[in-house]
Amino acid sequence: HWYITQGLPAILGINVLPVVWALYKIISRPSENKMGLLLITAAGLHVLLHSFIPHKEFRFVLPLLPILLYLAQDVIVPWSRKAKKWQLYGVTMLMLVGNLLPSLYFGVIHQAGTLAVMPVLRESLTENRSAILFMMPCHSTPLYSHLHRNVSTRTLDCSPPPEGRTCESDAFFMNPNRWWNAEYAHRQTPSHLVLFDVLKGRVDSLLQGYDLIQRINHTQFPQGEVGEKVLVYKKRTQKIQADEIIH
User: Fold this and answer.
1) Do 60 and 138 sit in the same domain of this protein?
2) pLDDT digits (tens, 9 = 90+) for 118-129
3) Domain span at 140
4) Which of 75, 109, 143 is the last residue of a domain?
């Protein structure tokens, strides 16, 4: 039910209202809406097949967006021909505001910290002498397309593990200190660490040789291993004054 209750409503936004209206009209009078019935059957099969796959993402139902928007206009256009002017203006404003405000919030503010951290890292890195460890869920940040630096990067792998084993990302968050000790027992530790604030209390001992150089807002709705802020630490080479830390 994830795609029905979360996936499709998330990609449709305010457009879910005319889509539900269109579905009701098609299902209540299928003989009069053969094309619409064909389209919702195709969309339904797409959702059904993807529902059997344990791994679910919003992008898996994005191909349905043109179909669903076509169904939405199929009820809005006939209605608009009979609607009064104030009704047309009202619905137009509702659709504009209902699309614009979420677009601005989710495109500029919500979970923006993992993108905003890349320029910070780029300015702090030294070519060929830096290495970054992203101590956060996999695929949280972009990498070289935004770094533009010849440095080593390390992210936690979340590929499906062999049966009976745990993926690296899960193993790290179950015991960060044990993972660190195993990973860096015989190799150089990274010059930069990037993590969410929810992890900090669990890795304080690992941060002893690092200084906080940036704290970036990420989201107002932290969940699980994703926190409100992104923290950037740099290996200590000289003492950093407190007023150099940017909040």
Assistant:
1) no
2) 999 999 987 667
3) 113-244
4) 109
